[in-house]
């Protein structure tokens, strides 16, 4: 039964108010608690740790953790957080692109100890790191490091979509252009529309 949550909550409240007819206010606090307990569990956002099973990212700077990140991202639903503990995560970029699903957050450690080391396994052709999979997304507390000589746009934010509310907060996006001859663009808006882009407390070099 696909009943809207507002109707479902009202329906439950109506039933219980019927049970407590004559003394509704005495049980109002209990009723609100029951309603939150009954329906809050289904709506509660999850925190997915990329190091936990079944994703098992190594974060050792050597192992290719691309599959772990891809699987963890695919497991996210709106409201969820992909948590990336302290470590250096080697992610080999391919011609495919990772996407952060709508309504989700990708979050590292606030002290800057979550490093995403982007590699290409020797390839020099163009590749990307990650795109929005929809609106209302946040990248937060990440040090993103291009660590090989390949041409790239790390965050092509509006290419092929029209996202709304994209936030990059407390991030370092480092192309190391002094080490590599191939170009590196940190963020590209593209030819599509983008609404409400917030870049806060971040450095792009």
Description:
The chain has 205 residues and is α/β, with parallel strands linked by helices. The radius of gyration is 22 Å and the shape is globular. The chain has helices spanning 5-19, 28-43, 66-74; strands spanning 47-49, 60-64, 81-83, 87-92, 98-101, 105-107, 114-119, 127-128, 130-133, 137-140, 143-146, 152-156, 164-169, 172-174, 184-188, 195-200, 203-204. The chain has three helices and 17 strands. The chain starts with a helix and ends with a strand. The strands form four sheets. The protein has a six-stranded parallel β-sheet, with no helix packed on it. A six-stranded parallel β-sheet has the order 2-4-7-11-14-17, with helices on one face. A three-stranded parallel β-sheet has the order 8-12-15, with no helix packed on it.
What characteristics describe this protein?
alpha/beta, six-stranded parallel beta sheet, globular
In angstroms, what separates the terminal alpha carbons?
A: 51 Å
**Strand portion, in percent?**
25-35%
* Average pLDDT over all residues: 83
- Give the oligomeric state of the chains in this entry, treating copies of one chain as homo and distinct chains as hetero: single chain
Biggest sheet, in brief? 6 strands, parallel
**SSE series:** HHEEHEEEEEEEEEEEEEEE
* Proportion of residues in helical segments: 10-25%
Low-confidence stretches: 1-42
The count of strands amounts to: 17
What does the overall shape look like? globular
Strand order of the largest sheet: 1-3-6-10-13-16
Number of helices: 3
Rg over CA atoms: 22 Å
Structural class: alpha/beta
């Amino acid at each position: 039964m696909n009943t809207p949550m507002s109707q479902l909550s009202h329906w439950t409240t109506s039933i219980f108010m019927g049970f407590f007819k004559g003394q509704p206010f005495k049980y109002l606090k209990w009723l609100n608690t029951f309603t939150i307990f009954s329906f809050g569990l289904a709506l509660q956002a999850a925190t997915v740790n990329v190091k936990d099973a079944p994703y098992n990212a190594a974060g050792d700077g050597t192992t290719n953790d691309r599959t772990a990140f891809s699987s963890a991202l695919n497991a996210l639903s709106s409201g969820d957080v992909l948590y990336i503990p302290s470590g250096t995560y080697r992610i080999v970029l391919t011609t495919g692109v990772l996407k952060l699903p709508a309504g989700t957050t990708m979050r590292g450690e606030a002290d800057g100890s979550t490093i995403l080391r982007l590699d290409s396994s020797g390839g020099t052709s163009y590749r990307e790191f990650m795109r929005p999979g929809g609106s209302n997304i946040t990248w937060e507390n990440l040090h993103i490091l291009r660590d090989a000589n390949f041409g790239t746009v790390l965050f092509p934010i509006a290419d092929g979509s029209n996202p709304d509310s994209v936030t990059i907060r407390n991030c370092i996006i480092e192309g190391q252009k002094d080490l590599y001859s191939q170009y590196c663009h940190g963020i590209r808006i593209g030819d599509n529309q983008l609404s409400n882009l917030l870049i806060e407390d971040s450095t792009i070099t």
